[in-house]
Write a structure and sequence with these properties.
The chain has about 400 residues and is an all-alpha fold. The chain has helices spanning about 10-20, 40-45, 50-65, 70-80, 85-100, 105-110, 115-130, 130-190, 195-230, 230-240, 245-270, 275-280, 285-300, 305-310, 320-330, 335-355, 355-390. α3 packs across α4 (about 70-80). The termini are far apart.
Length: about 400
Amino acid sequence: MTGVLEGASMDAVAEELLRSGLTPVEVKAKAGTAAVESPLARLMEEKISNTDLMLFSRQMASLLRAGVPILRALASLAESSTHSRFQSVLSDLREGLASGRELSACMHRHPQVFQPFYVNMVRVGETTGRLDEVFLRLFNHLEFEKEMHERVKSALRYPSFVIVALVAALAVINVMVIPAFAKVYKSSNADLPLMTQILIGTSEWTVAYWPVMLGLVVFGVIAFRWWIRTEAGCYAWHRQLLKLPIAGKIVHKAALARFAKGLAMTYQTGVPIVQGLTSTAQVVGNVFIASRVEQMKTAVERGESITRAARTTAVFTPVVLQMMSVGEETGELDKLLQEIGEMYQREVEYEIATLSEQVEPILIVGLGVIVLIVALGVFLPIWDLGSTMLGKK
C-alpha cells in the first residue's frame, strides 16, 4: 500500500501507521507541501497559553459529559474560539478525527500545544472510555500547574528585584557620588585612608571602563540564556537552583507537589506505574528531578517497589517516602500521593507568604555593610580634614 498521510514528522506518521495496524516500509516527506512561514509571521503569531488549554479541557469535559459527540464538540469550540491559531488547531483535530484518526494521534501532531503528558492522558481516556473524566482531571492539573508556576515566579521575582536595585545603587555611587568627593580630596593634598583609596580607585576604573563592563554583562546574560537551553546546561542550572538559600526549597517543594499530583492523576486513570512515571517526569518543572523520576522508572522496571526506587534518588523527603510506603502497603497510593501534593502546595503557599520576612534580615545586613563601607570611605577623610583645620587654628 502507498499513500499520503499528514503528520508533524516522519516518526509521527510511522507511529500512526503502526497504531492503525500497518507496518511502514518507507516514510518520506512530500516535496512542496510544507508551507514556509516567515520569521516575522512566526514572531507576530499569537501563542497558545496555558489558560487557553485549561479552558479547552474544561469545555471538552462538560460537552462530552453532556453527551455531545466529539466531532460536534470540537466544531463548536473552534467556532466560538477567539484565538485564531487555536481555532486552526481545533479545526485540524476535527479533520483528523473525521478521517479516522484517534484524538490523541491528532494532538500528537501539535507538540507546541499539547505536551506528551497531555497526549498520553487523552490516549488513556480513549482506551478506557473515560475521556470526559480525563479532560476534567487535565483541567484540574493545568490549573494547579499554572498556580504553582505563578507562585514560584513571584517568589523568585522579589529577591531578583532587590539584587538589581542594589547593583544599580552601587553603580550610581561609583559613577556620580564618589568622583565628586574625589575632587575635594585631591585639592586638599591630604593622605587618604586605605578604604577611601580603594573606593576612589574602583570608581575611576568603573567610569573609565563602564562600556566594557556593560558589554560583559550583556554577553554574560546572552551566554547564560544559551547555556541553560542546552541539555547539560539546563540540567546543571536546575540542580543548582535547588541549592539556593531561600528560593531553592520553594522550587523543590513545588516540584514535589507537581510530581505527587501528576503521578496520582495517572494512577487514578488506570495508567501503569512505569508509564505514569514517564508522563510525570515531563511535568515536574525541573530537569534534575525529572531525571531522578526517570531513574525511578528504570528501578521499577527491574522489579523494585516505587518507595525503594524513590529512596535511591535522594530528592524525596522522608515524609514523602513514608507516605508512599504506606500507600503501597494499603493499596491507596493515589490517595496518599494526592495528599502529598496538597501538603506541599500549602507549604509553598506559606513559604511565599513569609518570603519577605525571610529576605529582610539578609537585605538589612547587606545594606548595612554597603552603607558602612561607603560612609567610612567617604567621610573619614572629611573628618580628618576638619580635625587638621581646627588644629591649625
